[in-house]
């Protein structure tokens, strides 16, 4: 036993898979201790905030210490940042219409573009063929660019609640800086927010935990049923075998996923919790385990060591637990690992169809995919709402399959590299 | 000749059929036999003749399709677990392949302790158990102190088969079925195994049913020989009678197939 474990932990593939899975597990357990917001709390007003560090503007203005930094490229950066893509395209359009050669204009080079604009644009010049509305539009673009180039600071004013008068409180100059450490409210949203304005990272960690639980429960149920039925059919044989194989064949013929959909649907939205779904998945996926265990037991029960155990007067339970189970344990462990990963996938599949656990309590990986799909994250290009979920599912399944391959190589020497 | 002794194990019309329909195989076909106490019996036949199936039926490991087996003159009753256990106190076996005969997850001590337990020695003090195991091991020239805490697969094939004999030494059954005990062992260890088997048999006076494909070996060890072909006993009698004056062509063929080291091989019959 110790020897086998030693071998298992010397298998590279198993070790890599195990490490990935353990990392995921550690994150699942440790993250909630650090970030204490509930995973489904709505923090953002609006949908799909992109990933990044969010700094409270109010707190930044009221930072206790104001630092003055004279950075040579600060202005250029500011203008480049505030000059929208739309404006840049409009500027190019005018310049081309005016007669500047198109290849000389690079809309990504802010300084050059502004210089060309300054040199050529005349608000009073109405280019031939341009509508009046278009002419006015370019005048507005020019006004906004003039605003950009202003070096005046911004005035912070407070409104007197009685008279409604504005009293100047302070001026924020363009060279004023606040240290992020001084700002009370900074929130890092590594993966932004989802369609409801919930933090995707927190949600993802919670979802990975719930999905692993679903996989574990489903895997345990499926493996237990498969193991018990397989052992009974294989060891007792005869009529018991015939009955069990009849049921097993019945389950093999019915497509499991269709069965899963039908059962989930008939349970109803209100009663579908994460564990309920796990149980349903478990009860529909034991078939292959049962078949495989049966055939293994079939060949084992006629082996000499089983005969010797019988001749030594051992009772049936002891023969099953001491002489049969240890020999198929490696297979059952591998089947269990695969059942966990396929349970996670099955939950994801069900949830995408809207038949997963009810949506109000806990997120699951499948539910997150479902939400992202319903709110068209993939069409809007909000990758952070679905890509991390996909990657998490892939990573978990991959690690489990890698562990399975590693175990396979340890237990079946013919497969070793 | 011990054939005058009491009947120990006998059978009438013992038949075993595997499968049904197109896959129906008649492994053992209505065989009759009478083994007497203290006798050494050989059942000889080529592979697939039904020797091992018969042995398993005698051991009560598989059911008998048809016919009846009598143990000590009475109909054998192994209908419940308790009765089976009682039956297995009297009849034991040594298997062909020592490498698959042990549970690889259990240590050697466990194998020997099981035998003491089956003999009703489960409540003995630990020193007494160790003494019994040491005695059994030294009978087959193994050192208990070296075997304890070892797994069976750490031994060589010959050692494992000797351990199997040590097991029988502890159990002291009335009947021992040795199913090709030497066929997986190298030639040198073979003689040792046979010697220990014979020594054990001489000490305990048990009935020894020797199953083999080697008719020379059968002649060497046994009092009575049964020749088996296609699930049937085609010839039986005392060893001298059967082997020195064979009546059946099958028996003659088996005899001529024994390789003789000092003669040129006659390959025309192969």
Question: How does this structure look, described?
Answer:
The complex is a heterodimer of chains A (417) and B (270). Chain A is mostly helical and 417 residues long. Chain A folds into 2 domains: 2-44 and 194-415, MetI-like (MetI-like fold); 66-177, no CATH class. In chain A, 62% of the residues lie in helices and 6% in strands. Chain A has helices at 2-8, 12-34, 57-61, 74-82, 85-98, 110-120, 132-148, 200-236, 238-253, 256-267, 274-284, 287-300, 304-311, 316-352, 365-374, 377-380, 387-411, and strands at 52-55, 67-68, 154-159, 166-172, 176-177, 186-189. In chain A, a hairpin with a 6-residue loop joins strand 3 (154-159) and strand 4 (166-172). In chain A, helix 2 (12-34) packs across helix 8, helix 9 (238-253) runs antiparallel to helix 12 (287-300) and helix 15 (365-374) packs antiparallel against helix 17 (387-411). In chain A, 31% of the residues are buried. By secondary structure, chain B is of the alpha/beta class. Chain B has a single domain (2-259), classed as P-loop containing nucleotide triphosphate hydrolases (Rossmann fold). In chain B, 39% of the residues lie in helices and 24% in strands. Chain B has 11 helices and 10 strands. In chain B, strand 4 and strand 5 (74-75) form a beta hairpin. The longest helix of chain B has 18 residues, at 187-204. Chain B starts with 6 loop residues before the first strand and ends in a 14-residue tail after the last helix. The chains are: A mainly alpha (417), B alpha/beta (270). The A-B interface holds A 1, 303-305, 307-316, 322-323, 326 and B 56, 59, 61, 81, 84-85, 88-89, 92-93, 95-97, 100-106, 111, 114-115, 117-118.
Summarize the structure.
Chain A is mainly α and 417 residues long. Chain A has helices at residues 2-8, 12-34, 57-61, 74-82, 85-98, 110-120, 132-148, 200-236, 238-253, 256-267, 274-284, 287-300, 304-311, 316-352, 365-374, 377-380, 387-411, and strands spanning 52-55, 67-68, 154-159, 166-172, 176-177, 186-189.
